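step=predict obj=LacI family transcriptional regulator n=343
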Amino acid sequence: MANKEITIKDVAKLAECSPTTVSRVINNSDHPVSKETAEKVEAAIKKLNFSPNRIAQGLKSDRSNIIGVIVHDICDSYFAQMVKGIEEFISGHEYIVNIYNTSRSVEKELHAFNLLKANRADAIILAGGALMDKKYEQKMHSMINQLQNQNTLVLGITPHPFDIKNIILGNDRALEVITDKVIEYGHRKIAYIDGPEKLYTSYLRKKGFKKSLEKNDIAVDDNLIFKGDFSFNGGRKAALEIIKKINSITAVVAANDSTALGAMWELNHQAIKVPDQISVVGIDNLPEAKYSYPPLTTIEIPIYQLGTNIGEYLLNRLNENCNYQFKDIKIKLIMRNSLKRLK
């Protein structure tokens, strides 16, 4: 027979007080409880290994202690680093971090929001860029209004077209800076590997790439812009297309590091040496970027620090520190061996 579940009544019996007194100790009530009685309750809780019913507590306090994190691909180091930062900062506080992997699917993202709304999540983080889809935007506008009416804090990483707290990473600026460096190194025949077509982050990064070309008097050649999906395999596929125009290209700017690493791997596999025959650069400075062959020149967006800053911001706002401001992060150019200076 299974062991009986320990209840607040069992704690009260052992501590020789009422269940109401136990509840006051557990919830740090303003109602006075003597030090001696509080110590008896805490000793009883420890002896019985009692865990308060968080669902019941949530019903009383109108707080669920749930923080939802919606990511596009948890296998991507970008999201893994961010979630690690969020979770490690929040760890030790009494919050449950629920992670939803949506694969950039409109249906999956809406489903995740519905679940979090139904469970009255205290906060929701949209960790990926906005999905550019009219159906999605219309439904999300309505859902976010409902969430805000139930006091759920919604946070977006990069701009989202909703009335929420948006954290601006400077995606367009990052691509502009890295492309400027490629041009400074003498390259003018530059290919670009794009991100997922329906993702606003992709739009911003391509915008930065084009801005750099235009200000350096280099015509934007759409024939040198290749499809990608922010993945290693997407970079490999793009590289196979780039090879067909290898004589027209001296450098490749990839929309993120995973794409750049995949492109470099495929180019080397096809006996096209990086950077001797073609240079490759990326964005993000993922942990694996410095271990590639050759090590990847990139822009560092400190994703783990971004995660800890998100965690710190949420804890402050959820504890009614309404004046707390989000700590911005700064991008940084990381020079390695995948970019060659032309003579």
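step=describe
The longest strand covers residues 66-71.
step=end
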